[in-house]
Amino acid sequence: MRDAYLVGAAQTDYGAFPHESYRSLFATAFEDAVASVDGEFDRAAVDEAYVGTLGVGGRQLGLSGPAVTEYVGLDGASCTRVENACAASGTALRQATLAIRAGAADVAIAGGFEVMTDMSGDQTRYWLGVSGETEWERMAGTTFAGVYAQMADAHMADHGTTREHLSRVAAKNHANGANNPHAHLGFECSLDDAMNAPSVAEPLNLYDCCPTSDGASVAILASREAAEELTDTPIRVAGAGQASSRVGLFQRPTLTGIPATTDAAEQAYDEAGIDPADVDFAEVHDCFSIAELMAYEDLGFCEKGEAGPFIESGATEPDGDIPVNLSGGLKSKGHPIGATGGGQAVEVFKQLRGEAGDRQVAGLGRGLAHNVGGSGGAVTVHVFEEGWA
Amino acid sequence: MRDAYLVGAAQTDYGAFPHESYRSLFATAFEDAVASVDGEFDRAAVDEAYVGTLGVGGRQLGLSGPAVTEYVGLDGASCTRVENACAASGTALRQATLAIRAGAADVAIAGGFEVMTDMSGDQTRYWLGVSGETEWERMAGTTFAGVYAQMADAHMADHGTTREHLSRVAAKNHANGANNPHAHLGFECSLDDAMNAPSVAEPLNLYDCCPTSDGASVAILASREAAEELTDTPIRVAGAGQASSRVGLFQRPTLTGIPATTDAAEQAYDEAGIDPADVDFAEVHDCFSIAELMAYEDLGFCEKGEAGPFIESGATEPDGDIPVNLSGGLKSKGHPIGATGGGQAVEVFKQLRGEAGDRQVAGLGRGLAHNVGGSGGAVTVHVFEEGWA
């Protein structure tokens, strides 16, 4: 099998940008990704592009993938839009990896974008508010915060997880995000403030919830042969896992975990030939604080039910055994749906290359990115390793 | 490289079905596809699924891929929704092929669906009416019929294509579709009626335009090893090409052809190691009559500018050198956007297996399927061959 390597990656600032369009955001991420490539990058060499986005509405109604790749001059690339809700660009990353492994591409783009704060021109934020499984969640009035609140409630009841455990996610990720110039909410947040914020959906409060953001991200992948021309710091996609499970939470066998995370992680670990303990750091999908705690367990970083004590131990702090969400995560960096999975890869790329500035952690050789669609209907898990295979 | 084989395929009736949902349509196509497999089919063996659809709106807003695969019990499969406008399930077919070639799947599903006639619950038909490139086509009031009318007008001016040439597409495809029990408009249409129909967008009239339909299609693909257990009549995906070009017609170098068709066909022919003359029959994307004529040229079935005389010669009739749209095509069989590309593969599957009933043509060994998104922003071309590699 041909290996895929990450040879460039970048994201825009995440935030509210009324003066930007989906195309201008994508172009910024793309040009910065090109600038991050060590070697001479020829955009005519791009064979395939995968673009993740949830949104339609006021902008391009179909073909929004080709609409952004043409805008950055990728005329020769075949472009496919992929959508798996919030896992859209994690899915794009895996499809680009498969295209290289299949021999269909030597150089491939995986990216994503979302414009969420323009309520007049786009329905994405409205949809997100009312989305989830349609018949029995959305039409019954449940929001995404409501769905994750059910998980938090069950996790607290079954495993003794506390209000403080949840808020530790917010405090840690805001502390990390304060060192990330691209963060939407790049300010620190004390544990006290996080614990005493106004309620959104019991037991989740404002600081348990990520923001909705505008933004874009782009990763550039290459086969070994192409990567040798393009990079001095090869980062291999050692494992690319993806799984689906029931779209509605009520249809799944557990309220306290996401089965598709476990399945996707198992695939990624198998491909990489590693155990969870071999992961040096991770970007996980913390759309709500409880989601990060469940990810610790589903990804095997700690035992089932032990996520609360695990975060309390400091294990996932920057100086811990396995730093999680050094970028600030969705909570602080922001969550522009279609860009999020690609943005996670950007942080892994930067940390593995030692280019993460004030939030750089030394000695990292293997990173994981975990991207969840909806409340777990689709999940991707990627393992990235520094060095040639 | 691992080869992918088509081991099962089916589509629903195409038409207006107010009593059906996107899930019930997908389930019908899926169960019929399973029934078409020669061997014992175990749905737990499905590793990957790709589902093409354009629509969102009144139904599942994100994750509509996993929402249909869970409905048919594909709990173990990783599902990805792909969208390239009307080329959505042609794209799904290629992604499933790549997943098998990459070693990520032994058995994969490629399907698609669209519910277009329920105006209350879904905006797809509205969008289609106003879609195309956003800034300079849609917002200027141009419809898809208007865009293809510009192509028809230019083709008539540059190459002497006539009103009668266009109408021959309708007459041929309706004659073919009258033998297809799944066809939406399964009635014959005389050349006279086709030539004298009311105008839609000059020079295109009602019989130059395909209908909007509800429907679904599903193809089942397998690696060689898996296919040996599943079929007695192997049909190999000999070539899988995909290309993009500018989304807006006005931004492309020609009005009289679709460059992405030429590019995707070149890839598919190269992979299959064949020339256009080696193709026995084809399903091409005749959303408008002019689209079929341009496809003859872009796919290399005749010289540039010669499509009019080519159809007049009878070459693409069922008894001609290269029968085109034996299924009735989009014109007569119907065009449920996300289902269309998969539905083309269904016809190729049936013809190559000798199971096409009243419209069976004898002695076919190699078929081509050509699926266009928008007015040419994305195109897939697949070549299928009977027999093991």
Structure description:
The first copy, chain A, is α/β, with parallel strands linked by helices and 389 residues long. Chain A has a single domain, classed as Peroxisomal Thiolase, Chain A, domain 1, CATH 3.40.47. The first copy, chain A, has helices at residues 22-35, 64-71, 88-101, 124-130, 144-159, 163-177, 191-195, 224-230, 259-272, 289-298, 307-312, 329-332, 340-353, and strands at residues 4-11, 48-52, 78-83, 107-114, 199-201, 204-205, 215-223, 235-244, 281-283, 366-373, 378-386. Chain A has a nine-stranded mixed sheet with strand order 3-2-4-7-1-8-11-10-9, with helices on both faces. The first copy, chain A, has a two-stranded antiparallel sheet with strand order 5-6. Chain A is globular, with a radius of gyration of 19 Å. Chain A starts with a strand and ends with a strand. The mean pLDDT of chain A is 95. At the A-B interface, helix 2, strand 3, helix 3 and strand 8 of A face helix 2, strand 3, helix 3 and strand 8 of B. Strand 3 (78-83) of chain A pairs antiparallel with strand 3 of chain B, so a sheet runs across the interface. Chains A, B: This is Thiolase domain-containing protein. Chains A, B: Keywords: Isoprene biosynthesis.
Keywords:
34% helix; 18% strand; two-stranded antiparallel sheet; 389 residues; globular; homodimer; 11 strands; isoprene biosynthesis (chains A, B); nine-stranded mixed β-sheet; Peroxisomal Thiolase, Chain A, domain 1; alpha/beta; Thiolase_N (chains A, B)
